[in-house]
Every structure is written in C-alpha cells, then in structure tokens.
Amino acid sequence: MQLSVWTYEGPPHVGAMRVATAMEGMHYLLHAPQGDTYADLLFTMIERRGKRPPVTYTTFEARDLGKDTAQLFQDAAYDAAERFQPQAMMVGASCTAELIQDDPAGLSEAMDLPCPVIPLELPSYQRKENWGAAESFYQIVRVLADRSVKPAPREGRRPLINILGPTALGFRHRDDLVEIRKILTDLGIDVHLVAPLGASPRDITQIGAADFNIVLYPEIGDEAARWLERELKQPAVRTVPIGVGATRAFIEEVAEFAEVDPTPALGDNSSRMPWWSRSVDSNYLTGKRVFIFGDATHAVAAAKIAHEELGFEVCGLGCYNREFARDIRVAAKLYGVEPLITDDHMEVEDAIIAAQPEMVLGTQMERHIAKRLGMPCAVISAPVHVQDFPARHSPQMGFEGANVIFDTWVHPLVMGLEEHLLTMFRDDFEFSDENGPSHHAAHAPRKHTATQDETPAPAPIAQPANDTIWTSEAERELKKIPFFVRGKARRNTEAFAADQGRAEIDLETLYDAKAHYAR
Amino acid sequence: MNALPPSSGCASDLAVKKRPSNQTPILRERGQREVFCGLTGIIWLHRKMQDAFFLVVGSRTCAHLLQSAAGVMIFAEPRFATAIMEERDLAGMVDAQDELDRVVGRLLERRPDISTLFLVGSCPSEVIKLDLAKAAERLGAKHAGGVRILNYSGSGIETTFTQGEDACLASLVPEMPAGDPNGEQELLIVGSLPDIVEDQFLRLFEQLGINHVGALPARKSGDLPSVGPNTRYLLAQPFLAETAMALEGRGAQRLDALFPFGAEGTANWLRAAADAFGIDEMHFNNVIAGPRERAKRAIEHSAKQLGGKRISFLPDSQLEVPLARFLNQELGMEPVEVGTPYLHRKHLAQELELLPESVRLSEGQHVDKQLDRVREDKPDLTVCGLGLANPLEAEGFTTKWAIELVFSPIHGFEQAGDLAELFARPLRRRDVLKV
Questions:
Q1: A113 contact residues in B (CB cutoff 8 A)
Q2: Disulfide-capable partner of B315 in A326, B245, B341, B352 (CB 3.0 to 4.6 Å)?
Q3: In whole angstroms, what is the distance from residue B352 CA to residue B369 CA?
Q4: What ipTM goes with this model?
Q5: The whole model's pTM is what?
Q6: What is the pLDDT of residue A487?
Q7: Is B311 exposed, middle or buried (0-12, 13-18, 19+ CB in 10 A)?
C-alpha cells in the first residue's frame, strides 16, 4: 500500500481513454462501476472538449457481483455497438472490474461484435496512465494494421511519414503538432497519418504505407513504433524537438531518413530564442540554479535547454515515470546531479527544499510547491491542468516552441534591468519591496502566499538551523539586500553561522558568509 | 462483419411505478450512470470536520478521482489521502491488513492533530472484502486515547455521490453520547452545512426559543451532540436515509418538513421545529418575517429571468426534487424531467406533493437514453454533471453544473437569492454573449 495525497499519473485505463478520445470512430467499452465516469470530466472540463469521450461504462453495482456482471458487460457491448456504430472497439476493465475477473477480452471475442475488437489488459495495481496509453495504442496498431500495406516505390513521389504519440489531454500536443507539420512542409515531406490524435481505426489499417515514423511522445508512441520497426520494417525518428538544438537535430534526422535537404527547415527565421538568449540583458540568467521535474522526456529536454541554451545550472533533475528512468539517469550524470525517480510529490518537495534552486521547472504540483516556498516556477510537463490548454497557440516543440519556452521560463524571474533598478531604488521612501516585482506574482514575498494554503503544511519549510540571534545592525544590513535574494542570504548566513558555531550573527558573520558562498 | 442481435433492452430495465402522492408514474432506469461515487463527499466533509482525516483504502483511480474532482493541488496537504492498494496487497488478506496498519501508523505520526480518522471503503476494497470495520476496531485499540477510528463505505458499487455523506454520518451515530431520557426535548440538525449557514439556523432557533440544538456532523469531533428518545431531528439534506435510520434506532424522531431551500422551504422547515417545540405561532411569525421577506426580495430579480423557463435535472445529488420544487414554487420555472439517483419517497413526500402533475420523475440513469430525452424536450436549462455540461453546451443547450449546488451555500433564507442566481446566471450569460 502506498499512502498518496496526490498522484502524477492516473490509472492505466485513463491512458486508454486518452487514446480512444483522441481518435475518430473508436469506442471504448470499460467494465467499471459507477463513479469511474469521473474521468469524463478530465476531457470535457480540463481540455474543454465539446464531445463526451467515446466511452461506455458497464456500471455494475454491489448487487450484481457474483451474479450477472458478465451479462451486463455483454449487453453494454451490444448497446454501444448499435448506438455508436464504431469502426472498432477497445474493451477492458478498470481497477474494480479487474478484481472480479470477468475477462472482457474473452467475453467480447465470443460475442461476434460487428466491428474489430481490441482487447486491453491494463493491470491497474501495477501500472499507470502513460503506460496504459502506450499499451493501448500499441494494441490498436497491432490488431488493426494491415501488414500487407507497404510504402509505394519512392520514385516520383514525396516522402510520406506517420507522426506517433499525440493524444487527448496531452501537454501541448495540439500546438506541437502544428509546429511539426510546419517543419515537414518546409522539408517537402507529406504526413500520411497522425495517431492516435485524429486517426480512425480505418486510417490505422493503412499505417504501413508511410516510409517512416516520427515518435513525438515516447511515453505514448514508442511501444507501437518499436512494433512497427520490427514487423513492418518502418524506421523511427526518436529525437524529440524541444529546444533549438533538439529541433535542429530533429530536422537533420528527419531529412536524413527522408533523403531530402534539411536547409529549408533549418533556416527558419522565426527562431528568436538564440538571440534573446545571447542579448546582453540575458546576462543575469547565467548560472541560475534550476530544479527540473516532470515526465522523463520533457524533463530531459528541459535540462538540455537550461544548460545549453539559457546558461542555467541544473541543480536537480527527476521524473515520475519509472519506465523512462534510464533517460533521466543518463542526463543526470551529464549535469552531475543525483537523479530523482519518484511519484511521491512530498519527496520532490523535500528535494527542492534541499537543493534551494533559484527556479523550479516542473509540473503543476511543483508549481504549487514553488509557490509555497516563494520560488519562481514554470510548468514544463503533464499532468495537465486547465491552464495547459490556453486559447492561444503555445507549443513546446520546434523553433516557435523554443520561443515560447524562453518567455515562459524567463518571465517568472526578475528581469536583469529590473534587478538593478530595485537595487537603486530600495532606499526610496516610496518604494516598498514587499510589493514584489512589477510584472509577476510568481514570487511575491512568502508572507503574502502563506494564506493561500488551506491548511498549514506540516512539512518542514526551511527553518533556521538553530536559534541564532541576529544583531540589529546585521538585521538592518540584511534588509538592504534585494528581497528576491534576501531569503537565500538569510538562510545561507544562518547555515554558515551554525556551521562555524557562531551564536550571534553580526555584520562580520554576514559578510563572511557572503564570501563563503560566493561563486 | 455480422449483423447485430436484436436489442435486448440493454442494460436498462424500465419499470413504471406509481408516485404515491399524486399518482404520477416514475421512470426507473438502469444503465450507464454519469455520476460520482460516494468518495466525492470527502471533499466537503473534510472541510466541515476540521479535526477529521479521511483515508480512502482503494486504488489509484480513487486517488485520481479525488484530486480531479477537488482540484486538490491547491492545498498544502489536505486532510484526506488514499492508501493505494498494489499488486502485493491483493495477494493475501493478512498482508493488506498489515499494510493498512503501517500506513495508518505513518499517517498518525505525521498528523498528530487528527482526532477522528475515517477509513473509507472503495470499490476495490469492497470487492476483495477487506474488512475495514475490523481494521478500525483493531487500529482504534492500538491508538486508543489520541484518536477515534471509524469506517464507512464510499464505494461506487454501493453509494452514489452524496450517499457517501450519508454513510459517513451514519458511522458517527453510534459515537454520539446518549441523551438524558428524562431531560428536555432537544433538536438536532442533520446534514453537513457550511458553517455560516449552520450559524444562521442556530441563531433563528435561538430567537424562536429552542435552546437545545445540536448539529450532525459537529465541527469538532469531540463536540458530537447527544441523541436519545427526546431528540427531534430535522434533515437539512434529502440524501440521508441511512443516517435517519441509525438516529431512529437510537430513539430520535424525524420532523417531517420541506427541505430548507428558498423562502417557503426554509419557513416550512423551521415551522416543523417550532410546532414540535410548542413555539407560539405569533412569535414564530415575528421571528421569521424579516428574513423571509429578505429572501423573497433576493430572489425577485432572478424570477424575471427564470419565470416560465423549462428546466431538466439529470440525476446527481438527490437535491433535484427539492430544488425543482423551489424553482417551480418560488420562481415559476417549469420542471420537465427531474432525474435523481435515488428517490426517498418518505423523506420527500411533502416535496413531491408540490411538484406539478406534468413533471417527468426519473430514478436511476441510462445516460444515453436520458440525453436523447433532453434533446427531444429541449429545456431552457439542463442541470447536469461536469462530464456532460460542455458536450451539451456544444450542442446548443444551456447548462448548470450540478456540483456547484453541492459545494455552494444554498440553504436557508439568506442564501435563497444566491441559489436562484446559480440558475439564472447561465441564462443571463447566454443572452449577454455575442461571440
């Protein structure tokens, strides 16, 4: 048993729902009790979909147990087939139905439904949402793909590719896809199929007609891509184009696979991020310590951008999806940090407190942790929140994605010029640094944010190491330090004093500590 | 491809029952239900009982439901959590009980401020027959002195949405101290209300001259009111069947009344108490005249918006019948279909009598068939769950999220205007928008 207050991922059948909901003409029959329908609201409320997810829940009750839950399943299957006339049907069980062992796969096989059936075995007590999505998509491809469909001879036609991985409720999948299509257009490559998002079961049967696959979201698409590599001999591009460098590498890899010239796409002049990062006002970004946590793909990409494209220092790196822990371990080694592989957000919080970063790049959960700790934060990864479905175009991938990332990460920080102005004006009687930076509420002083928490967190929030006393002179001096570094200065000084066994912090101690921590 | 077998009526058996009060038939349906399970009640119960903690013994799905329904992310550390069962817990029962002991131990260590811990059963824990009553007893003995450990089931195979609160409150009834059988008659308000609403009612009862008034649940678990043969109780919520039975098992008697929604419902509810406690008619009228008039004034401007409009309720919280009565009686709306997950005929007897003959009452749900009826009826406003609201809006229907009716203060005179406004706002918004 795992004590959980909050989870990064839902159960695996929610992953299957994300695949079914992304597709057209697919229906998912889920053997489940009432209440599991809550998952519908993820799609209708968070993603604001105007359609119900194509899911039928068999809705068994306690009184049905041991009697006719299997009959209930069969009735619901016939009903759904007749009402929705799907091209194919996924069938499976949620966590409770898994325990009653009605065997939806066997039942539906015996039923002779009027459409192909994709039986799903998603072990709810071992696996989670991303795995469920990957497994469902893989089973759909495996069952439906017509293995006799091969690419037409290359002569006299443009290259043809599949894009694998985008789903419903995906972190910026909608907008990433626009950017990828732009790149492919520039390269003169045609898209045969995007799947699961927007694909129908009939489309899936023809998946073999493409020359190769592009795996945009390995967490969801890689399982199917590996099968296609093995069975249909379709190679796969696996570079994930998040960040300027990765986008360039992606373009080159795609061009190489397609045997086309990469130059038209590489020359994209809407890429502003490199100059924004080089311009002098970005100098203050140098060496900012960032803590990164998310799904493995987004976290690894974020670390690379942070390190290579913004000049940050990666002071923590981790992911919640164990299946991709290896990628995180490799990257963590690169930046000389300890990899954090956990799905316990309290452990992540402890790691953030210990690392004392100047910024957190994480999920919505880390955004809340950072808010409590008074640290700037930007969201880089699922699990999704209603804010991750903005009305405007807001990709993470491609050159435009890199532009968006620059803005998203830099805006929560105090800007370079503002940093100097704050120092200049801090003695001005009209200036109150308790107002925080002008442009953002992300790291208003903690005393304002404390009231936002419904209950006081029993978790330790960096307390003074001991009851060291500040002399009033040192305390006054501390107040002259800009507020956004004051907390850190206080903590560092107290830690230093404790370390040195000084019971009192005077001016001397303050500046000794400053020298000690100077980098 | 094969032809489909003849439709067997599918997962829906359709029976027609007679409404006892005025003989209107009740449509009973069985099929897919678009409702929450009883675990959802934890979201408001943990806020009401500030020293209680709710530990769901369930699956990742249960944890995901709670965080999705509650937007838990905004809280530092909510007073609820899930003990997520894993593969190894399912291997043997002894294991699962040991694991539960470990998890509870860790939790109580982390939260020494908890004085009542509810072990909440879920679908998976019920299916594997994990005995939480036994666990509560064992853990209660182990942690005796500091914390009371109770259990109830919020599972979706047994409870629908608000029935979770019913099960929780019923588990508290045996814990209530015994009232003095020779003492004075006491009043008990049953059903969790926002503190501000509860305080308004307590003030009114005091002004009426009813001095011994308790509330279930109490804000602090140490303040559980007493119960006994001298207890007269008023249900503040229509979904408390099991709790009512438990209270009656301890000798309490229910005061039959309308539910306290709107000016008339609230007046009727208070009057039931006043009558039972022998309060003078004139005094009663003096006390409630002011707030009752205020309530009427507050709903007036919404009446213009809502009068004559047709409304359908999809089953959600069991509040549907009293709310339909309020909207019909005080705002002139025409209820087309009033769907409810479960219809408690006895507790709702007075409410049902006031509903117009034309209304279609339905109990249970077959969501696809019900949506077909909504499309045919074309009501001006459809009250439904979050999974259905946007899809219906996209089809051109104006909707009201049912869940807001559970999370917002809507009872009593002072909230009558807010309650009416909740229904008027979607219609006003529809008229205002030019996009």
A1: 2
A2: B341
A3: 24
A4: 0.91
A5: 0.89
A6: 76
A7: buried
